[in-house]
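Field: COMPLEX_INPUT
Field: COMPONENT_COUNT = two
Field: RESIDUE_TOTAL = 943
Field: MODE = joint
Values follow.
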Amino acid sequence: MPLPAFDTPLIFETGQEGRANRYLPEGPALETLLPREALRDDLPLPDNSELDVVRHFTRLSQKTFGIDTAFYPLGSCTMKYNPRINDAMANLPALRDVHPFAPDHAAQGALAVMWELERALGSLFGMAAFSLNPAAGAHAELAALLIAKAYFKRKGEPQRNVVIVPDTAHGTNPASAAMVGFKVLSLKSDAHGRVDPEEMRKVAGPDTAVCMMTNPNTLGLFEPRIHEVSDIVHNAGGLMYYDGANANALMGNTRPGDMGFDLMHLNLHKTFTIPHGGGGAGAGPVGVAAHLVPFLPTPVVRAFDAGGNAVDASGWRDSTDLTFALEFDRPQAIGTMRSFWSNFAHMVRALAYTYANGADGLTTVSQLAVLNANYIRASIRDVVDVPYDEINRHEFVASAQSLKRETGVRALDIAKALLDRGYHAPTVYFPLIVPECMMIEPTETESKETLDQFIAALREIVATAKSDPEQILAAPVNTAVGRIDETRAARQPDLRWRPPA
Amino acid sequence: MLRVIGVDTLDDLVRVPDAVALRAPVEVTPRLSEIEIAERFGRFAERTTAGGYTSFLGAGAYRHYIPPVVGAIAMRGEFLTSYTPYQAEVSQGYLQAIYEWQTYIALLTGLDVANASVYDGATALAEGAIMAVNATGRKAILISQAVHPNYRAVLRTYAEGLELTVDELPYGADGRTDLRALDAALADQRYAAVVVQSPNFFGAIDALPAGVAERVKSTKTVVIGVVAEAMSLAALAAPATWGAEICAGEAQSFGNAIAYGGPHVGFIAATNEHLRRIPGRLVGRTVDVNGKTAYVLTLQAREQHIRREKATSNICTNQAHCALCATVYLAALGKTGLRGCAALNVARTNELKTKVAKLDGFSVRFGAPTFNEVAIRVPGRAADVLSALERKQILGGISLGRWYPELDDCILMTATELTSSADVDRLTTALSEFPVRAAARV
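Field: COMPLEX_OUTPUT
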C-alpha cells in the first residue's frame, strides 16, 4: 500500500488575507483594551480557509503510517489495536471538560475512574499503591528514583547513589538516574541474555540505591532467576525497580510485586491500548510496595465509605457507593511531577480497556502476545539470525549479521524494504548488545493471516537480498520520500519556517 | 501456531518459576460488553457534575472554544495510532505537522527554535531550568512567587533530584514581580536563571520592564519566561521581545480539552544559543536521496536513546498528539481568529472586573493590567464566598489562600471568549447577595 508522493506546502506558505474563518463573534480591537506597550506589534501567521486546513492535514495524515494503516511490529512499543470505545468514553463531555480545580464534590465520577484504575493496577502488578501523576514512562522512572532518594535520605543512608542497569536496558533508565544525581553502573548480560545473579552479587553493596530491570528483558527473554537477583539487591540494602515497558507479556501470569520489585512504572499507552498519537501523550503511573507508599507523588485519590471511613481495598472494587477526595497533604511525598493531577483522559481509556477484558481477558492478552511473537520467531529463524533462539515472551530479537556479511544488506535496509511492502519496520539497533538487531513485537491483536503475510514479506526480502541486494539497498521507493539525508539535517539544522524577508 | 513453535500448549510459552508464580487471582474489573462499558462510563459522567456549573476557573487550564475541525482531523487513525516517527519515510505527514508546530511556537514566542513538545507547562519550566543550569554551570534558580504555584512545586520536585537551590522573588503591590531585590540577588552570580511568568498567576501582565533583561544577562544569568496561558501570545508582546532566552509554556488553550488536567502540552522555545541543550524531540527539514524536501527527527545526539545518562533529559514520550491538535487549531483560527479570540478574552475579563468591582465589599486586588484572569478581593474568606457560589451552581474561581495565606480574601477569576455577559451577571448577582448572607450568619 504505497503512500501518496505528492508534496504538501507548509501551512505558512498558503492562505491569504480575507480567508479567516468566523468562529468567534466580533469583539473590540486589542488596542482599545490594553496599553500599547503590552501588545505585540505583529502576529505573522497565515489565515487559511477551513477547507484548505482540512485538505492540508488530511494529506499529511495520508503520509503517516499508523496501526490503523497496517501491521506495526515496532519492538518495545506494543503497537496494538486501540479500541475506539476508549476514545468515545474519554470524550464524554462531563469527563472531557471537567476542570482540575473543580471541587471534589463536582468531580466524583472522574475521581472514581482514577481510583478504580489505581486499585486494578495495584492488584494486577502486585503493588501496594500507584500514583497516576507522572505523564509518561520516563517521567515515572524519574518519580520512582526520587522516591528511592527520599527513602534512603529518611533511612539515613544518603550515600546510596548507584543505580545498576543491565546493558540491555532502555535508554531512559540511565537518563532518569542521571536526573536524580545517581551514578549508573551498567551490568553485562550473560551468554543467555540474562542478568547473572553472581554478577549482581559482585556489584550490589552499601552504595547500591536501585537496580532497574525489566522482565521479560528487552531481548524478550524472561529472567528466570529474578527472585534471586531481588534477594541479592535487597540483602545489600537496595531497592528493585521494574521498568513496565514490557508489562504486556505477563498480565495474569506473574507480577512484579511477586518478583521482588519495590517500585515500578507502567506505560499505560502500551499495555492499556491508549493511542500513541505520534509519540504521545502517554501515561506512566508509578507503583510502590507498602514501605514506599508515603513517598508517592501527589495528589493521590482516597476513597471513603458512606460513614466517611477511608477505604483501603486490596484490588479493584465497584466505586458506586464510595466517595472520593484528592489528597495533597502527604508530608513525606516527593512532591508533584506535573501541572495537574494525571493524564486523566488516558486514565479513562485505560479503565475502559480493563473493563473490556477483565482478569481473564487480560491474561489471554498476554498469552496471545507471547504466542504471536514466538510464531514469528519460529517462522523466520531459518532465514535470519536469532541470537537467542529459545522461547521468548511478547517480543524477540533477530539479527541481520549473517545476511550483512553475505550480501551487504543490513537491518536498516530490511527495515526500509518492509516499508516498501506496506509494513512498519521493527525497532532496529536496539538493544545495543546485539549487532544488526531487529526487535519484533507483533502484539496480541494481530491475526494469524497478518503474521503469515509479514513472515512471507520478510522471507522474500531476505531472498531478494541474496539474489539482488541492490534492490533492497535502494529501498524504500514506494514511500512519500526516499532515504533521508540525516547528516544534512543535523549539520544544517532547519527546525522552523521563517517568513520571507 | 503452537506446532510451528514446537510446544504443546500456551502454558508452555508463559511458564514462570514457582517462586514468582501468581498465587491468587488478580482483582480487577469485571469483563463487560461495549454497551455495558458505555453505561458504566455514563454513570462516571453523571457523577462528574462540574459541567452543570457556570465556571470562572482557570489558573493554568483554560476553557476555550475548540472548532469541530480540530477533533475531526486529530482523530484520523493515521495520526492517532502512529508512534514516534522513527521511520521518517512513512511519517512525513506527522513530521511536517510537528515542524509546523515548532514554527508556530517560534513565531508566537519570538524565539529561534521550539521543540516537538514536553509533558506540560510545569515540566517545561523544570526542563528549561535544567537547560539554564547546563548553560551556566550554576546550581540555583531565582523564580518569581507570581509564577504558577504548581509550576514552582514541580521545579522543586526536580530540584531535589538535581540538588538545585530554588529561591523566590516576591510579588509587589500591583501584582507584578517585585524586582527591587533583583540586582542584589544577581550580584554574586550564583543563579543559573531568573524565572518570571506573564501573564502571571494573578493574571497580571508581568513582562520584564525595559532594561531588566539586559541587567540579568550581564551577570551571565539566563532569563526564562513562562507562559501558562498560550492564548496571551496572540496579543501580548512576545517573550523574546522582553528578554526571555528560554520560554517554557503550556499550549492546552490551543485546541486541547481541559480533561481534568491532562493530557495537555508543554513547549520549550529558545534562542539558537541554547539549541543543543533543548530536551526531547526536534524535527528538521532536509532532503531525501533524490533531493526532495523531507522531514526527520534530528539532533538526536542530545537524547536518551543515544546518550543514555549523558542526555539533556530523560524524556522519550512527549505530547505529540496534543501538539497536533494545537497545530490544527492554530491553522484554523489563523492570525485573525487568534487576535480576535485574545481580544475577546481581555474584553470579557475587563467586563468581569468592572462589574464585580462595583459590588459593595468587592474590589480588584492588584492594579496591573491583566489578560484573562484577575484577583478579586472579597468581603470575608474566599473559601466561604466560593462555597456560597457553589450553592448557586457557580464555580467562582480558586481561593488564592491555598498558596498565598496573605491572600485568603482573594479569588482568582477567569473569563474567556466562552464567558458570556449573562454568566458575569449571574456571578455578580450571586456575589451581591453574599455580604448580606455573611452578616446574617453573624
